[in-house]
Design a protein that fits this description.
Order of helices and strands: HHEEEEEEEEE
Largest sheet: 8 strands, antiparallel, barrel
CATH class: Mainly Beta
Number of strands: 9
Oligomer: single chain
Distance between the termini: 41 Å
Radius of gyration: 19 Å
Shape: globular
Structural class: alpha+beta
Helix content: 10-25%
Number of helices: 2
Length: about 170
């Protein structure tokens, strides 16, 4: 029984991939080549050093230039609020992905374990955004870069990368 279910699922996935093989390529091209009405809404985990997820709104103003606004919060015993912005410049376009550079600036205010402060975050790096076949309006991305943060009179400079810490998912309207 388990074997027949597995075979059915695999055949279904292969069929979907074959039927819609052009969808991801078409959407990536549409998003990267269309006029200024390319806006994606989703999330990004990059801005907060305290592990909260931010709402992300990414807008491509031209074929090669985009902006992203980030806002996130956590309320309760620990209170965290962050807001930031990115400037994105496309470096390379392919059928179902784009490679870009970014600059990031943000502010994070927190009250955690009776310590409170406001932190300035600055960063820059590179990222990719790609589209899977069958999910043509859903963009998946990850970024690698350097960031600087200053909180509680302590400065921190280092890399920001990885699947969990700098991942974003957006649905393009």
């Amino acid at each position: 029984m388990k074997k027949s279910i597995l075979i059915t699922v695999l055949v279904g996935l292969i069929s979907v991939c074959l039927v819609s093989s052009g969808d991801a390529k078409d959407t990536a091209k549409r998003i990267m080549e269309k006029g200024p009405s390319r806006t994606g809404i989703g999330f990004n985990n990059q801005l907060s050093n305290l592990g909260i997820t931010s709402l992300s709104i990414r807008h491509w103003a031209t074929r090669n230039t985009g902006f992203e606004g980030l806002i996130g919060f956590s309320l309760g015993d620990n209170t965290i609020f962050d807001i930031g912005a990115k400037l994105l410049m496309v470096l390379k376009k392919e059928d179902n992905l784009s490679v870009y550079s970014y600059g990031l600036a943000g502010i994070e205010s927190f009250d955690v374990n009776s310590q409170n402060d406001t932190s300035l975050t600055l960063g820059a790096g590179f990222g990719i955004e790609f589209f899977l076949t069958g999910l043509s309006n859903l963009g998946f991305g990850t970024e690698l870069g350097l960031s600087f943060s200053n909180a509680n009179n302590r400065s921190q400079f280092g890399t920001s990368s990885g699947f969990i810490s700098s991942v974003g998912i957006r649905y393009y309207l």
